Amino acid sequence: MTPVSVDIRNVALSYGTTQVLKDITVSIKPGEFFALLGPSGSGKSTLLRLIAGFNQHSHGSVLVGGKDVTGTPPWKRNVGMVFQNYALWPHMTVEQNVAFGLEERKFPREKVRAKVAAALELVGLSELGKRRPGQLSGGQQQRVAIARTLAIEPQVLLLDEPLSNLDARLRVQTRQELVKLQKRLGITTIFVTHDQEEALTTCHRIAVMDQGVIQQVGSPMELFDHPVNRFVAQFVGSVNLFAGEFRRERGALRFISPKLGDVALPGALEPPAAGYDLAFRPHAVHFEVDGAVASGDAMHLGGAVEGAEFLGEFLRYEIRVGEALVTADVPHERGRAPLAAGTRVGLSVPASELRFVSA
Amino acid sequence: MNRTSPAVVAVALAIAAFLVAFLVIPVATVVYTAFSDGQGGFTLAHFSAFAGISLMRESFANSLYVAGMTVAFSTLIAVPLAYLTVRFQFRGAILIQTLGVLPLVMPAFVGASAMQLLFGRSGSVNLILKDAFGISLPLMEGLNGVIFVETLHYFPFILLNLSAALANIDSSMEESAQNLGSSGWRLFSRIVFPLALPGYVAGASLVFIKVFDDLGTPLVLNVTNMLAPQAFLRVTSIGIEDPIGYVICVILVVFSIAAMAGSWWFVKRRDYAVVSRGGAMAPRRRLTPWQTVLAYGWITLVLLLVLSPHLGILLLSFSKVWSFTVLPEQFTIAHYATVFEDSTRMIWNTFLYCGLAALFDVIIGTAIAYIVLRTALPGRHLLDHLVTVALAMPGVVLGIGYLRTFRGIELPFGGGALTASWLIFVLAYTVRRLPFALRSCMAALQQVHPSLEEAAENLGASRWRTIKRVVVPLMAGGILAGFVTSFITAAVEISETILLTSRESLAPMSYGIYLYMQSIAGRGPGAALGVIAVVLVAVGTYLSHRFVAANTPQNPTGGKP
């Protein structure tokens, strides 16, 4: 089956007076592995269910393969969904579960059998066809759920938090298998998750959602390197964020922040309009060696160590600068003790790592 | 928790002794008598004698037929109602909930005579039909009448169980089927109903047992060619020695236990709970205008039918004459006067017997709940199982068992024969209603987290003081609900009551209703007494719901231990 596009156009949805989705517009390309990323309550699951036809939106339209499916009931959409809890029917065997959608489509018995076998083969569960869902492990149940959905050869594959019910080790392995499977089948896939790592590692593009609004759409690296606002910067990766005023004075750029104090920024930077924050990632913060000359293409801060968390690969320092706490990640070298609390340190952040994001 | 002390052992043994004496031995006596040749030997002669009597074969077939048809008709009524309430946005939900409780507050045998007047050959409905179309429906003829009355009384068992099962189905179970292309009837028959099947089977088997064992309704409708009435007639007319009565009892017991065990096995066999629980309930769908009309039509029809015995009995209790007319022509309150003049004794008896029985039930129930849930006493589950057995024991069987086992036993201090005293009612009611009280007490204790007791002990309270000051107060709502349930179900118990009533002065009001209804002239006062009983049960049911509701939020540490 040739991959199809999914277009969401100006979709809005309310439950009573609560607006769950506000004017959502996004286009998912044919064959794309696309993530809806956001905290709980952001509307990402609602949007996914809307594509499957379970929620009726009050406004806008949903197009699958260029065809408007608004008003088409779920059972006529041919949009396959894998549920967060897998939703395997306990009164049927694995084979019966997988055969269900094919039987509903009135396929001849022989064809059903062949397709069920192929689907179970695809997820590597050929031997477990006669078991009941209750006799399978969580990981196996999830594969059955995927096989059941793929068996009907849907136009689009929807995955609702597919990894959230698996333990940590299995999660990474399953994640990689999902990527391979999607690549092999080339099916347009929409993946809902609240876990940024899952989204960053699996998907071609990600839509970050918050409070019923898509905040930003982009590739994983675009989102990380060029977040458009405070929310995206904070939700994708860790970040230092400071509100303040940017002033250009005699060629020099100053940042007057209520918390950080009065800081000189690299003069080459273009100051943003009002309403922007200064943002930089913890890993972009470098400790200055004593006596190093402050260079003009970096921001320099002075502070004292407040505390440190040891995370294995690196140490995460909290440095008190003025009234603010700056997070700085420093790679760990074997045997090196962390700096004691109260130690005075100089920090520098290269100009290329400084971002202005709207609040 | 290990809390086995001599006191616990003593209490457990005392309860066990009580259950053996008043449940196990009477039932065993019945079974023994059915298989005994009178000289201590084993024989199947009584069974072949039973099979040789054509009336017995007919009664057996009739009982099966009536129970089966009642289940079928109850299913027809209950399944659409249950599906409607649980799955659709529907203003009638309150109506359906009312439908679920209304029939239960009116004992089937009470409503039966009113049904006769409304739906019988010359009842209101047929009079109207004959006038308008010249036809009449044999709704109340013979077995039809029993099926009709029992269906309207017992369908709530299926409705309640099935609704609960439907509400427990995770929404994703249905949505995934829709996602794979299923809808409408196929969705219901392939996914929804199979998933709710345990609930349905539990309800249906209960209906089957209740109808199969029922004595009061057939007797009031004057249908005697069924098993329970035959057992009653054999024992009362031929005598307590007649073996055929015991054969019938054994058949009743076997079917009851088989139906209960079957439903239990069925629910256990499928591991439904294993997969994906705790999700949201399915969002309620909107009804199309066409479906709305159909739904309200169905509910209205059922509601009218369900209300008919209530209305009928009310009309009857106020009617001076009601015969061959659609509605009574003259009204009077004389029947209530008659009842209060003649039957205060019976009302008092009901309060005495049922109050005592309910009290014993909650005491024993609380003790068993504590022993089962909070001690490590070996064999403690046996107590629980024994009580559950009482649930499957038909009242007829227990009644006959009591008469046979305790005949000739004299009460101390010149109290006369046990079987001729009022104590026998208290004992019989206590045993038969114990399962209800026990469920209530168990549920209440499960809501009390053990840490609450441990905290009390940690602060220096002894085990007995802990039970008294922490456990029982926290269980209070459940215990009260158990008391009320025991009381009201005992108040309208008829099978045992008919068997155990040796003279009228000892009779409780359920027997009074039955007795009045035997004669045309007694129908009015019988109906009046029935109204009083219904009001009693309705108030009790309401109170019991209140107790449970009031108790629930009081537990800060809810949940099962």
Number of separate domains of chain B: 2
Order of helices and strands of chain A: EEEHEEEHHHEHEHEEHHEEEEEEEEEEE
Give the biggest beta sheet of chain B.
2 strands, antiparallel
Q: So what's the CATH class of the largest domain in chain B?
A: Mainly Alpha
Return the structural class of chain A: alpha+beta
> Architecture of the largest domain in chain B in CATH?
Orthogonal Bundle
Based on CA inertia axes, which overall geometry of chain A fits? elongated
Structure write-up:
- The complex is a heterodimer of chains A (359) and B (561).
- By secondary structure, chain A is of the alpha+beta class.
- Chain A folds into two domains: 6-235, P-loop containing nucleotide triphosphate hydrolases (Rossmann fold, 3-Layer(aba) Sandwich), CATH 3.40.50; 244-358, Nucleic acid-binding proteins (OB fold (Dihydrolipoamide Acetyltransferase, E2P)).
- Helices cover 24% and strands 35% of the residues of chain A.
- Chain A has helices at residues 44-52, 94-104, 109-122, 138-151, 168-185, 196-202, 220-225, 230-235; strands at 6-15, 18-28, 33-37, 59-64, 67-68, 79-82, 156-160, 188-193, 205-210, 213-218, 240-242, 245-249, 252-257, 261-265, 276-280, 286-287, 298-310, 314-321, 324-331, 344-350, 355-358.
- Chain A has a six-stranded mixed sheet, sandwiched between helices. A five-stranded antiparallel sheet of chain A has the order 16-20-17-18-19, with no helix packed on it.
- The mean pLDDT of chain A is 90.
- By secondary structure, chain B is mainly alpha-helical.
- In chain B, the strands form two sheets. A two-stranded antiparallel sheet of chain B has the order 1-2. A two-stranded antiparallel sheet of chain B has the order 3-4.
- In chain B, a hairpin with an 8-residue loop joins strand 1 (319-321) and strand 2.
- In chain B, helix 1 (6-35) packs across helix 15 (344-374) and helix 5 crosses helix 7.
- The longest helix of chain B has 34 residues, at 54-87.
- Chain B starts with 5 loop residues before the first helix and ends in a 10-residue tail after the last helix.
- The chains are: A alpha+beta (359), B mainly alpha (561).
- At the A-B interface, strand 6, helix 2 and helix 4 of A face helix 8 and helix 9 of B.
